[in-house]
Amino acid sequence: MKKEKFALKNIKYGSTNASIHASERLNISHFIKHKILPTDTVFNLCLKYNVNIEDIRFSNKLLNSKQIFAMDEIVIPIQNVPESQEKFPNVKSENVLSLQEYQEWIKVKINIHSTSPKKQSKSQERYTESPPNVFNNIRTFLDKTDTIIENSHQNLRLHADVNIPSTDTINQNSDKAKNSSNRRYNQQPSYKNNVDILYKYGKPTRYVPDIIEYDQYSVYYDTMNRIPRWAMEHITKASLKGKGNRKHSKFGADSINVPKLFQSDRNDFRGGSLSRGHMVPAGDMKLSQKSMDDTFFYTNIVPQNIDNNTGYWNQIESFCRQLTNDFKDVYIISGPLFVPYFDSKDNETYIKYKMNGKNNVAVPTHLFKIIVGVNKENDIYTANVVVPNEKINSKKKLTDFVVPIEMIEKLTGFVFFPKLKQLNLKNLCTDNIRKCKLPLTWQEMQQLKKNEQNPKVHEKNNN
């Protein structure tokens, strides 16, 4: 059988004029997620061809195809393709599906937005099955914001402190810097490729996907501190009414995505006043038992003060769920912070935090939550809160902890919801009917029930 040479970096979806994001190009996660190429096969290929695993860029990034997919003999065993007979009824090869054929199917079937849809060629018409659903609700929302921007008749508001350059600008600046460096040392531009010798024995790598995507949420896992840097979720009124039950879930390591070297275990969250704190709450993932179970991976857990976890933080989580009564979609990003403090003794600034357990899991000083609500009219409301990782009086107002999103971005090193930066956003705590008013704690609700059952006690307390 003739084997195809294949370079994935040339594959883009939609027209050349479309706004193409890295997450919308073919990447290795498609092969692994849909059981086209098993994870072990990918690792073996890397070893065989002396390719660093980091070049593959597992999640949401373009493959470095210069070495991997320019190899002649890579073909996809058709028995590894789910429902292969239905999806590829006319494949000429008896036992294999070439990458050329898989590419052709993917190009037709990945359903993303494009400025000018193209008519399928005759060679593409053979692939008639539905595409794999590789884009989750979060990514769908980010794509929808393009339409909101285009249809907006209001003045666009830009954040003064955050200037996000376009990909073209980054590439231009990179080229200018390289050319400037070549002129400075009187070198020819072709000499720049000698940097490849640095990676003769491989690049430093984490062996963990940049973003781990579960059924209903995604997370960025910090392999050094062994906690999530952020976790992102999407909830609706309907998604909160599933049959997932936390009684059937157990805490554990995600051994598929995280090597043992970078894992934590249950003993790392014990001691003192600490507990295992979910960043994506189990109560938000009731859509299925699988979704519920995913929240109990330690990739979603931080060492959290137990009073904070069961008290004020729990109130914030309940407040977010209540927002589904006012908004058709609620998007939430939660995570830990390590906030610097100023020491007046020596006039210096420090970051100080505890490392817990034998795996040295970092105990955050604070926690943050970024909340985005979209109503039926597509008006977008936001609020950003930062609370200390300690016991907080339940009478404290949530507005006492509201901060600009730039503060969270500077402390984490991430820009969150970048496509919202150009929109005229509304304040969730002032423009919304709930005014960021937190619900009662469990203890307060129990006390309220007792007072209703015993009116005399209630009357006495009021006096």
TrEMBL record:
GO biological process: apoptotic DNA fragmentation
PROSITE patterns attached to this UniProt entry: LYSM (PS51782)
SUPFAM superfamilies in the cross-refs: His-Me finger endonucleases (SSF54060)
Region feature (Disordered): 165-188
Active site: 278
Taxonomic source organism: Intoshia linei
Keyword annotations: Metal-binding
InterPro entries the UniProt entry points to: DNA/RNA_non-sp_Endonuclease_sf, Endo_G_ENPP1-like_dom, ENPP1-3/EXOG-like_nuc-like, His-Me_finger_sf, LysM, LysM_dom_sf, Non-specific_endonuclease
Limits of the LysM domain: 32-76
Family membership: Belongs to the DNA/RNA non-specific endonuclease family.
GO molecular function: metal ion binding; nucleic acid binding; RNA endonuclease activity; single-stranded DNA endodeoxyribonuclease activity
Protein name per UniProt: LysM domain-containing protein
